[in-house]
Amino acid sequence: MEALDIARWQFGIVTVYHFLMVPLTIGLGTLVAILQTRWHKTGNEAYLRMTKFWGKLFLINFIMGVATGIVQEFQFGMAWSEYSRFVGDVFGAPLAMEALLAFFVESTFLGLWIFGWKKLPPRIHLACLWIAVAGSIVSAYFILVANSWMQHPVGVEMLNGRPVMVDAWAVFTNNTALVAFFHTITGALAVAGGFLLGISWYQLWRRRKDGIDTVDATGRVIVGESATIPGRDKKDHSVWIKSLRFGAVVAMIAFAGSAVSGDLSGKLMFEQQPMKMAAAEAACHDGTSFSILSLGDVGSRDCSEVVAVMEVPGLLSFLAHNDFTTEIKGVNTLVPEYQAKYGKYLPDDPMYGDRAGQEINYVPVMPVTYWGFRMMIGFGGLAAAAAAVALWATRKGTVPKSKALMRLALIGILAPFGANAAGWIFTEMGRQPFVVAPNPSMSGIDQVFMFTASAVSPGVSAGEVIFSLVALTTVYAVLLVVEVVLLTKYIRGGVVSAMPELDQTKKTDDGGAGPGGEADDDVLAFAY
């Protein structure tokens, strides 16, 4: 394998791994802020417990997200220096604003929220969390502005072979960025909703298993208490049933929002990156039908071996143009058009190394785009369906006693994560062979594009990239174990793990409250 191939694997692994933390941080932070707002307005202790429990898990994930995100910046210089030189005049503004404005605001006010319990006035303390959450959302927007410019370059002029920003407003209001932001936020809320649902189901099941909660002849819950298990009182039941139903509603609303934003995103892709959408459909020939299932060699250059087994007539045209009759160009039509516009062979330039003069394959890896597109939709729909089932199953105040259903609910947490990951893999892989895709809709700007083959650092060898790939993957694997262990520990501990003051069994030798007891500073107990 060449350094280019290994560098792409490295960037893909690191980016997808990091993006497992990002949607949970954004979505869960928003839900925790809503829960604390409810506690502030109602004074209901159940909302305070919900805020602290889910807030604890939010903090663990936030810290891991920061640790894994730092490497993203280093990769640009390590393995993608030519790319960094090409996009630097454009990326400087959004990335600087993300780091200096959004992330600093997010981190500062999150710190005030962590250590501000009982130290700050309640309204100020609540405002700190909302500001931190807003910072994470704004941070995501700036990152998406940068990524969307790679998908759809606007607001620049070419000077000395490099794009230079001449219209900042066009860059920051790029229609691709606006739609991607909407889609990303709804996807993050879907992740958070599924997270609340699965964990709350597990906690309610534990209450049933331990005999704390029972049901009457009609199946309605009879809420109980345990004198031997700390925190397992009636308010504990309220925490989990409220969290479960809140998460289910959020998951369903988020899926609806994702469907709307996904439709808008798809229409833009048909216009801006027609080859990506043709590959996503394995659409070898012009037509109007949406492929439910295609079989054959979807990786073949001319699509000659791809056969559509199940398709919906007219649906592809509707997704692209809101009608059922307009034909959409297929791969075999688009390839000659791309070759005429951007060349059939890589330029004979030293920056391409041994790849100079090679024929350009404008068709992205079809198995990835085709199945990635369907996995994104399928996992998202599965998560929404599970949320609807959960609302119905808990209408009488608790969950069934089935262990299999409990395990299914926990596994279901992964579905929205899978939808998010598949969506990003499809978006980035479908752009190939470009690292900066050309903008075909803007007159005179077609020359603003960059082949991935020219983006890799020329002085980096395959061995050096293999070393960093193995090192980073190993570190990330360790961090994944750490996060899973920490999350599992605090999830199993229940609310008491975030509010140790609820455990009245811990006493000091002099009869006072012990570590985590009411006599202690529960602020530090919550933080650490």
TrEMBL record:
Cell location: Cell membrane
GO CC annotations, alphabetized: cytochrome complex; plasma membrane
Gene Ontology BP annotations: aerobic electron transport chain
Lipid bilayer topology: Multi-pass membrane protein
Keywords carried by this UniProt record: Cell membrane, Electron transport, Heme, Iron, Membrane, Metal-binding, Transmembrane, Transmembrane helix, Transport
Transmembrane segments: 12-33, 53-71, 91-115, 127-150, 177-199, 244-262, 371-393, 405-426, 465-487
One Gene Ontology MF term: heme binding
Stored InterPro entries: Cyt-d_ubiquinol_oxidase_su_1
Principal subcellular localisation of the protein: membrane
Superkingdom of source: Bacteria
Record-stated family: Belongs to the cytochrome ubiquinol oxidase subunit 1 family.
Name this protein carries in UniProt: Cytochrome ubiquinol oxidase subunit I
Organism the protein comes from: Arthrobacter psychrochitiniphilus
